[in-house]
Amino acid sequence: MRVAAAVRAAWHFLTQSLLPIAVLTAVIFGSLFFLERTGTAASRREVVVHLSADLLSSASATSLAVPMSEESRNVFAELDGGEDDAFLLSDGNVGSGDVPESALERRVLDAARKVDADSLDAALSDLTAVLAANPHHGSAWFLTGKIYSAREQLEEAAAAYSRAAEFSGGRAKAIPLYNLGCALRDLSRDEAAKDAFLQAIDRRPDYREARLNLALLLSKDPASREEAERAYDQLLRLYPDYSTGYFDRGLLRKAMDSDSLALADFRLAVLHDSLLTKGWIQIARLAEDAGRTDESLDAWYRVVEIDPESTRAWRALLLGLADQNRYEEAVTLGSRAVRIHPDWSAAWYNLGIAASRVERYDEARRAYERAIELEPHDFRPWLNLGVVLARQKRGRDAIRCYEEALAREPGSVSARYNLALERRRAGDLASALIEGERVFRLDPTSKVRRFLRTTAQRLIDRDGEDSAARRILTMTANSEEAGDDSTDDDRDAAPSE
Predict the structure, then answer these.
(1) Is residue 434 a part of any domain in this protein?
(2) Considering the domain boundaries, does residue 78 fall inside one?
(3) Residue 159 CB-density burial (10 A; 0-12 exposed, 13-18 middle, 19+ buried)
(4) What's the 3-state SS for 398-417?
């Protein structure tokens, strides 16, 4: 009779846990047949419970993983199988109440599924019932900690993980200890968190996430950064292809002002994970600081290839190309950037600058016009559009653009100087003198002084003696004599940061 009941219980557990594995079923029946012959009912009960625990551990490994850091993996899946290493979902303990242990295990599994479905209240209710029946149920405490972590109730989470660690053993004890460390770290109890991580590593020396988070924790305190660096060294000796470890050690070394070592770490990080955007960004910045311009630009290239939505990367790449006078490349990439980001005014503006530099004035004009549509209050595209129109010999349109720029930024020396130049080209020497004098008061450079003297002399030569022109000549008498001003040119605005 007891054998039949045990068989029915085992079969019910297998079907309920969704693991109808023929081999394991045969093992259960064979075990029960053996126990019936020996008549050891207590042993029979232990076999059913133990096999149920193993099945439950296998079925629940993924669903029971606690949320960890971004780089962490499913700890359960990494643990080796076996009685000592598997995290104790049933703990091999029989509840002190009347509820059979297999029923508790099923309830824990149900709770795990509810946690995965974000039904946290229902899961917590199940786990409370399990712990009432068996307060030593380590996996129930662990899941309880997971729920509290999800709710950011860190005190309660830490207490639950501590209990889970208390009622687990072997390498599996490392799992709740690790999660305890994470909770304590988030509670700013750094020393206690460090101790928990060290205990987890002691239980499982190859516990990658525990070693990583220990190193991260040590990195927070400038006084323990050398210890943190040693922790990263130990981690990377165990996992020499771990890109996250190299990246985080690079950040640490950067904070320690060891930029060359940091750059080497970031290179290793992207070597092992070529899609690690943040690694390429760090390479781009450090390489630029070190004067390695080509490497910096190549890194920004990689960023926009991986993440074409990154306006930060596009901006840095286009500005870097402009700084290197690589305007043809800037036009090609700028055209691509505005296809991806058609409403990004800065990209259109910078495309206009690059196109203008290589004398592709029609492209530049269209780019500036689009930038103005998107940011009509920005004076810079108005200014630069005026320069393009002036170079296309469209002086009247250029004057209108300079006036629009000055309406938005009256203090713009470049816009006012360009307006003065264009009015002189149009033969309006008197207006050119007025604007030129305003520029001189803002920017008394030799170039502006020469412009004033040349314009004043032309006015006198053309129209005869003129008091305003004579005053300008007197005001600028201490400067060099006016000469050929053929080098005077329009000024445009700088690229957009």
Answers:
(1) yes
(2) no
(3) middle
(4) HHHHHHHHHHHCCCCHHHHH
pLDDT tens-digit map of 355-381:
999 999 999 999 999 999 999 999 999
Name the phi and psi angles at 166, rounded to 5: -60, -35
Predicted confidence at residue 463, as pLDDT, reads 87
- Of the chain, the end-to-end C-alpha distance in Å amounts to 83
Cα dihedral 86, 88, 91, 95 in deg (nearest 10) = -140
The CA–CA distances, whole Å, from 77 to 26, 30, 108 equal 25, 29, 18
- DSSP symbols for 168-225: --GGGGHHHHHHHHHHHHHTT-HHHHHHHHHHHHHH-TT-HHHHHHHHHHHHTSGGGH
Dihedral sign (CA 4, 5, 11, 14)? negative
List strand residue ranges (DSSP E) for 41-148, in order: none
Query: Per the structure, how many domains does the chain have?
Result: 1
Task: Write out the residue range of the structural domain in which residue 413 sits.
Answer: 379-497
Distance of CA 447 to the CA centre of its chain: 47
pTM of the model: 0.71
Distance from C-alpha of 92 to C-alpha of 346, rounded to nearest angstrom = 65
What is the rounded CA–CA span in Å between residue 314 and residue 301? 8
Place 271 in a pLDDT band, splitting at 50, 70 and 90: very high
Residue 427, in any domain of the structure: yes
What is the Cα 23 distance to its own chain's centre? Answer: 47
Q: For the stretch 313-331, what's the b/e string if a residue is b when 16 or more beta carbons lie within 10 angstroms of its beta carbon?
A: bbbbbbbbbbeeebbebbb
Sign of CA dihedral 115, 120, 122, 125: positive
What is the tens place of the pLDDT at every residue in 61-76?
323 333 333 333 333 2
Where residue 439 sits, what CATH number does that domain have? 1.25.40.10
Residues 6+ apart with CB under 8 A from 59: 17, 18, 19, 109
Mean pLDDT of 193-220: 97
Please list, residue by residue across 193-232, b when 16 or more beta carbons sit within 10 angstroms of its beta carbon and e when fewer do. Answer: bbebbebbbebbeebbbbbbbbbbbbbeeeeebeebbebb
CA 264/CA 423 separation, integer angstroms: 56
Task: Examine residue 161 and state whether it is found in any structural domain, yes or no.
Answer: no
Cβ-in-10-Å burial (0-12, 13-18, 19+) of 170 comes to middle
